[in-house]
Amino acid sequence: MTVLRARELGKKYRRKWALTDCTLDVPAGHVTGLVGPNGAGKSTLLNLAAGMLSPTSGTIEACGGVPGSGPAQLAKVGFVAQNTPVYPGLTVADHLRLGARLNPSWDDRVAQDRITRIGLDPKQPAGKLSGGQRAQLALTIGIAKRPELLLLDEPVAALDPLARREFLQDLMETVAEHGLSVVMSSHLVADLERVCDHLIVLVDSQVRITGEVEDLLGAHRRLTGPRREIDSLPAGQEVVSVSHTDRQTTVLVRTEEPILDPAWTVSRLTLEDLVLAYLSGPVPTRPALEVLR
User: Fold this and answer.
1) What residue ranges are annotated as transmembrane (predicted)?
2) What strands lie across the sheet with 248-254, from one edge to the other?
3) Of 167, 193, 214, which marks where a domain is finished?
4) Between 161-178 and 131-144, two packed helices, what is the crossing angle to 10 degrees?
């Protein structure tokens, strides 16, 4: 089952494309890491999936429906934006009561347990909480809504290392217990490596690579050997990145075939290695999209 599907999706702000020719399928029941530099289109993709924005071109579906198309669709998708919005004049308890009124699948036990565990005072106004505490409150509301798909835009950016670890642990337990699907953007690849089993890398508003983390790592290799030109590599070895020193060449390739050249030393990659290679590698040239009318 696919929980998020995009076909040739694009979003344009005035003259600039924030997202172009985005085609992807996100499987249900997974935690998907959404990675890319600032301005790559991560927040735009999440806002489109939540129904906060409308596409300029192409199509997007979330949980089998058009994002933001009605109350039933809105109930299926939870979204915590990058600035973790809360209402400064409302207390923590007010936020939970509001969440219960607005969300038909609200799980008050989860909300109350999490507030107690992270030490938020129910009587405290949100405007007097620290940045990390506001983030925790917004995350609690997103989880307690019990959506089918939870979209998180840089959810741990304002949290200290201990709070990040606790949140990620909570997230994994929620996914395991309730089959929740998550798409989470983050610059912290080490955190994604702990929890994500699916990956999307966006660069310059385009999808560079997407797929199951295990499959992607299994299909990539680092080749190290004496300095040489790489035009002699077999056709089945797609070059992702290459670097040279005076005496050595290092190439990252994507291939399903074994590496038979004995001149190469072959090693596997970590998720961080893989992400950095695609972030720094050349972006394939594609024709510009036209605005659909």
Assistant:
1) none
2) 238-244, 248-254, 220-226, 265-267
3) 214
4) 0
pLDDT in tens, 191-229: 888 899 999 999 988 899 999 999 999 999 999 999 988
89 & 203 share domain: yes
pLDDT tens, position by position, 51-103: 999 999 999 999 999 999 999 999 999 999 887 788 999 999 999 999 999 99
Structure tokens at 168: 């990620």
Q: Are residues 160 and 46 in the same domain?
A: yes
CATH number for position 110: 3.40.50.300
Residue 52: what are its φ and ψ, rounded to 5°? Answer: -80, -20
Same-domain pairing of 81 and 207: yes
Rounded CA separation 53/71 (Å)? 16
Backbone angles phi, psi at 61, to 5 degrees: -130, 140
> Per-residue pLDDT tens for 130-175?
888 888 899 899 989 999 999 999 888 777 888 788 888 878 888 8
